[in-house]
Specification:
Layout: E1 10-14, H1 23-33, E2 40-46, H2 50-54, E3 60-63, E4 69-73, E5 95-104, H3 108-112, H4 118-123, H5 127-132, E6 137-141, H6 152-163
Parallel strand pairs: 2-6
Antiparallel strand pairs: 1-5, 2-5, 3-4, 3-5
Length: 164
């Protein structure tokens, strides 16, 4: 930010593995940043398939009733002790994380100074660094599907999507 000649109120970061983010999703995220006391925001989507639920390349999110993220994991969370994983989705809404973030510009210098934390190292998820350091991440639920490209199989799905 300090290298720019302009100042901004907020910054939207679309992760490189999310080439199909839609303008409406950017608007949804920007709207979350307009709320009081929201410094960081991101998008989530309800998981609809068991394959998505158990895919470790798809980060999962547990969210509070106010929409703040409680935790991110590569494993399905929360764990439903009394059900087999095949029966979890009808019992509870599980959310996947979409790789787009919004930040208040004023918070970015502080975020860039944070050291990688234990949880981030364990899960290999950068947003855990912010949670570990007491920052809140507001989520918004998108209904639009995106195709994150993290594996060769994802690339094939993306190419099929483009050809249609």
């Amino acid at each position: 930010m300090s290298k720019l000649d302009e100042s901004f109120d907020a910054v939207i970061n679309i992760q490189g593995d999310e080439p199909f983010i839609q303008p409406g999703q950017i608007d949804l995220l920007a709207g979350a940043l307009l709320e009081e006391n929201v410094d960081i925001a991101t998008l989530v989507k309800i998981i609809r398939s068991h394959d998505e639920l158990i895919n470790e390349n798809i980060p999962k999110v547990v969210i509070a009733s106010n929409g703040d993220a409680l935790y991110f994991s590569r494993q399905p969370i929360p764990f439903m002790k009394n059900f087999k994983t095949e029966h979890w989705l009808p019992q509870h809404n599980y959310y996947k994380h979409i790789g787009i973030y919004g930040y208040q510009a004023s918070i970015l210098p502080r975020l860039t100074q944070l050291q990688q934390g234990v949880l981030e190292k364990i899960e290999s998820l950068e947003q855990l660094r912010w949670l570990e350091n007491g920052f809140k991440i507001r989520t918004r639920i998108t209904e639009l599907e995106t195709i994150a490209v993290d594996t060769p199989e994802d690339l094939q799905r993306a190419q099929q999507y483009i050809s249609q």
